[in-house]
Structure formats: structure tokens, C-alpha cells
Design goal:
By secondary structure, the protein is an alpha+beta fold. It has helices spanning about 1-15, 25-30, 45-55, 65-75, 115-125, 170-175, and strands spanning about 80-85, 100-110, 130-140, 180-185. The chain has a 4-stranded antiparallel β-sheet with strand order 1-2-4-3, with helices on one face. The longest helix has 14 residues, at about 1-15. It is globular, with a radius of gyration of 17 Å.
């Protein structure tokens, strides 16, 4: 809770009182996605940034909400966090009992900062907020009316940090598509 609270406080401070937030490129890109296409995830960047600009603080204070809000506000990539259970694979009398876990889904369009979003998750795991159990990526097709890479309102290139393992590079090469990176984490 402490790590996610600090991240969320920094993220909200970044946006507080900014009049130019509507020009933030991820907001522009995610507006082009048909509402409801990702069950509301496509609206998260604009909704959360708009709330942070006005100083609104959500009443949802759980770990999952703080983490998803911090990732979205800092990277511009919509993040959804769901509580789930993982079977225990250990030995002993409690080996069959489920462990509390979370599934973190980070949605990324071609020019979004997916690497930053993943780094936030990795950092939270490094400070002991949870342990990363599994990471996987998948591609979804964009809705037919969404702009493609190189068209107006869509990114035409993707920049990654030197030596990075960014999943964004594949999105830029594919043109149309959206990366979803899922992290399954066991809560400590």
C-alpha cells in the first residue's frame, strides 16, 4: 500500500492544475478507440487525468485501484487490475489452498509508453508489494474505425529506450493492433 500510495500521489501531482492535459498524446490516441471496445479501459487515461487535474480523489482506496490508477496516470497506458486466486503449488497441509493474487492488464497502442508501465509494475514487485508470477503478451485487433499507424491522430513511429525490450516495436511494425501485457502477481 505504501509503494502504490507514493506512486499515485506523484502521478496526481504531475497532472494537478494542468490546463494542457487534453493534448497529452495518449489521451488523443485512446479517444480514437470506440467506447466500450475494451469494457471501459479505453476511457481510463482521460478520465483519470481529468480527475487528477481537478484534484478529485477517488473513494476507491484498495491496493488494486491505487496500482492501476498509478500505472495509467504515469504512463498513459490503461491498466486494469483484478483480484484473482492462484492454486498453491507448495507442499504440506495447505498446498491446495488458493493464494490471493491480482491480474494486471496493461493496454498499449503503438506509441504508448508500455515500457514505463511495465517498469512501474516491476518496481512495485522489487520493493515487495507483490511477487510477479507470470508475464505474457497478446495482440488484439483494433476496431475498424480506429486510426492506423501513420494516419491522422495515430502514431507514425515508436521510440524505445536503447537496449529496451519494448513490446511497442512490434505494434509499430504491424500497423494495426494493440498490445495487452498481462502480469499475474501474488500479493504478499
Amino acid at each position: 500500500m505504501t509503494a502504490t500510495s507514493v506512486l499515485l500521489r506523484w502521478a496526481r501531482r504531475r497532472w494537478r492544475g494542468r490546463a494542457d492535459f487534453e493534448y497529452f498524446p495518449p489521451i488523443q490516441r485512446w479517444r480514437a478507440i470506440e467506447p466500450g471496445f475494451l469494457d471501459g479501459a479505453e476511457c481510463r487515461p482521460e478520465r483519470l487525468i481529468r480527475a487528477a487535474v481537478t484534484g478529485y480523489v477517488s473513494s476507491e482506496t484498495g491496493f488494486e485501484h491505487r496500482l492501476s490508477d498509478a500505472v495509467t496516470l504515469l504512463s498513459g497506458c490503461p491498466a486494469m487490475v483484478q483480484a484473482t486466486e492462484l492454486p498453491d503449488t507448495g507442499h504440506g497441509p495447505l498446498s491446495a489452498s488458493p493464494r490471493r493474487a491480482i491480474l494486471i492488464s496493461i493496454y498499449s497502442l503503438a506509441a504508448d509508453d508500455l515500457l514505463l508501465a511495465e517498469d512501474i509494475i516491476t518496481s512495485c514487485a522489487a520493493v515487495g508489494a507483490f511477487s510477479l508470477v507470470e508475464r505474457f503478451s497478446r495482440w488484439l485487433s483494433l476496431p475498424p474505425n480506429a486510426p492506423r499507424c501513420g494516419e491522422t491522430g495515430a502514431p507514425s513511429e515508436t521510440r524505445a529506450r536503447p537496449g529496451s525490450r519494448s513490446g511497442n516495436e512490434g505494434a509499430a511494425r504491424r500497423g494495426a493492433g494493440e498490445a495487452v501485457v498481462d502480469h499475474v502477481c501474488h500479493r504478499c
